[in-house]
């Protein structure tokens, strides 16, 4: 049946199709509805009323139109899937366009004239013959890649490709060049049989390659691989060298990526956003990579909002997020990074000019990684706020190398459970504030020890230890050697110099004895380890120690520093096995350590000297007779007497205020077990030294009392 004239082409809406139903459409070919809601609806329904039903595309390609604008209604693409891929088509009597299998259909034996769909900015993949069952002839090299590519090509100015529930099987890379295409699914899911599934079976090639794409993206679907040996599920690249040849403003929303080799590779792109997306189970080099090739590529800025990125528990050599070369301005909001090897790795392997840029991470965090959760080798700036950082490996949670040129900040973070250090820092400008750091040094235990094969003199009079297998340690690590026979002087805690994979020297040791067998060694870890050469380190207001009831705390010190340029104040360093602070360098004018719990640090000293005979009584501190306008706590004393003996106490208003500490001829620094708080805020307090129990021959007493300001 044909119309008397060519109607103005109109778009058949999905809403209209739903209202009519399949039976209604068949009937519409013979009778027009009595009424419609609006003019557009009247025109559309009039077209349906005048459209002859055609069962399949095969039938359509055998039926030439008889007049320009003649309409037919395709009941289904294939006979065995009625209703799928159907719709209204019109006869374009002047067209010689190529048959694309979805929006343009040629008729056998007809050179001029084509059946066409009305297409503006929308196409349905089923229009191109997609069945949705994921089945394909084993000899079909493209499977559903061909129909999907044809759908993309049918939208030369961009638009949306609707992919209903079902499986799209890709055996060849799908390319999008320059146009904004949005792939819209019927819903993302963790199931493999519901929603929209794009199954990538491309071997070592990419699933999707987006080239110079401005706008568009993916939403409400799952992209998963099968048997992949290379490539990425989605990769972007530049279309040329001009500024506009990059990818711009691509959005991924409610997308799940899974079971691939590499996940997402972003190069030559700007303003890319992932929201509510999940990656899991990848066995290649990375899950997400920003740049990674050359200095003329960039991935910046990139956002991950409420996402999950996980290589999977079995893929312990796959890195989760790599920022390489000109990648950066990377923002993570409420995003979890799980499993795999390294969690976030900033590096430079692409050239001399490229440095990763700013990374900001807030909320969410890292867990169950087997390498370093946050590995910052090269870069300009990294900030972490309210972030949880944990690991399952033997390495550090956070490591900042000496070539990281910018600043690193942790604020309000939880950093716990590393095999070695919570934070290992060797660069410039580290600030850690308001964070909880503990239960690190997890592998400082005999369960994680390396078996010793030999101990000998290294030729310079120092012990050299050889392990039965590679130890995996670094110069500067602190280890405990135990149960070594013959060379018993090697047993104890040492700092090591690594010689090779299975050999290290014990710094400061004096080799002696002949090794007779046995022995093992394990490595210690601290909350924060500051390496030699680091500068401008600020650690304030943190709790660095064991967590009660939360994991195994084996970190020996809260903070170990081989660099003097540090400000360490107002921290709680209680709960560490060896102590709060270990200085491995000589303090300088830049060293500031004050007001920390769990350490022996003090804010100042009151000093007194009694020359000659020492008698019981009270003595003044020269130049410090009163404490006025402030409160101080007396916490430590350093004392010695040249002859005889006595005990000393800190005195307030002539009365002993601290417990007694014995002075002998051996100089000693002692912590005062019964500390005294001297409150001079309301009224000045006279202070002094109280000597008691002096022997008759006591002479030449020197005493210092260390104090902390209490505010």
UniProtKB/TrEMBL annotation:
InterPro entries associated with the record: ATP_synth_asu-like_sf (IPR023366), Pectin_lyas_fold (IPR012334), Pectin_lyase_fold/virulence (IPR011050), TAT_signal (IPR006311)
Gene3D superfamilies named in the record: 2.40.30.20, Single-stranded right-handed beta-helix, Pectin lyase-like
Signal peptide positions (record): 1-31
PROSITE patterns per record: TAT (PS51318)
Keywords: Signal
Protein name: Parallel beta helix pectate lyase-like protein
